[in-house]
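ok so for the tutorial part 2 we go from a plain amino acid sequence to predicted structure tokens. step 1 is just haveing the sequence, like this:
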Amino acid sequence: MIVIASPVIMSTEQSSDNPWYHMSEDLSSSVSDEVDHYTQPADALEDPPTNWRATIKYLGPSVIISATIVGSGEIILTASLGAAVGFSMLWWVLFSCWSKSILQAELARYIVLSGDTYLRAINRVPGKIPGPRKPFAWPVGLGLIGFLAGLTGLGGLIGGAGQAVVIIFPDLNPLIAVGLLAVLATVLLGSGSYRRLESIMLLFVVTFTVLTLAGALLMQTTEFATSTEDIIQGFKFEFSTSVAVLALAAYGYTGVNSGEIAAYSYWCIEKGYPARIGRFEDSPEWYARAHGWLRVMRTDIWITLVILTCATIPFYFLGAGVLHAMGETPQGADTVSALSSMYTKTLGPWSIWLFAIGAFCILYSSSVAAVAAGARFIPDYLIELGFVKREQLSTRIAIIRWYGLLVPFIGFGLYAGIQQPVLMVTISACYAAMMLPIQSGITMYLQRKRLPPEMLPKWPARYLLRVTFVLQAILAFGVIYFTVL
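step 2 — the prediction. this is what the tokens look like for a chain of 485 residues:
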């Protein structure tokens, strides 16, 4: 059923009882409320699916975000943490995987209901900084810093993928391998197409999930098999301060991190969730569409959580059960090669292919998906800073394409200059951990100020988000204490 939606900001003749009536009072003049045809194009309203079979074709953001999530945090940081402390921090890895999904879900709730993009949303927060064209909110400034830190992490990802290629082709120069992967990334991303990206990431995600689980199951047939005692040890809630920076970095990059939480909102937009809901109108039809498409989105988020758990825990078990037992801690330019010993020293030389292909799929899919996500941020930054008009949809699309063509080579350049994947990923991960409580606070603020009561989360989710905010703030202080002070 097609319904024509009315504007979000209603006229003064409409009922002031509606919670969105006063919305304009909460907004800075730097954030206008014109329709964004990127998020809510005309004539896109659609009723939600009513059964599981019909729901499947509307899933997809989880595939792309899983490709981003399951990357450096899992194969580099999680395995390195296991190698350093053994099984004692299994609880920490699970906490890192599961604790941030509530923020992912609640921020996405706001995005798909409001029709804002992520940066438009955070630019609604009070507290403006003078800009070259117009004032912008302070979280936008922090996001710019985080964006630059994320480029460092991109260099680590594409560098790690290059190391995996060299494992398969040992005569190939590592820098040449990374350079070739940068070229391939531009080919994959040059069109800027969401559908193409989703199809490519589905192949990567299925491959690395199957290979990771296969490696973990095969490991159970060796002397390094994980025992019940090992798992019990992992739930004694020990925290070793000697590896605090690595543990906090693993928290920042394991599971869905702050950048991926933001990126997920863009994939929800490009999958069409906010477009199908439409701009707010106080009608039963709008509420029915909103609840239905939120149900689809929650299903998508649950899929993300299952995939990342299945891909993360095996790597921690391998690091803790194999590398820790051997007294090896991977570091430096040969990190991925060192991690391969988790397989070769237990399953035999043949397993180098199992590890290398899985590692390549994990790290390279993360690289490609991260570049694709960054391409969505850049035009939004330019819009919120006043350099591009929101209605210039063709400009947004052109920027997305050019970003995909150029940024892989920036990642290559950063890796060529540093060649320390663990260090590069740790820098980006620590900043990501510091951004999480800010995102949680902003999400609670925007929901309270801009969503109608009928669409607010139920009390369990609401209080869980508050608890998450407190825990994230404590951990952000820990990042500052252990890395800066």
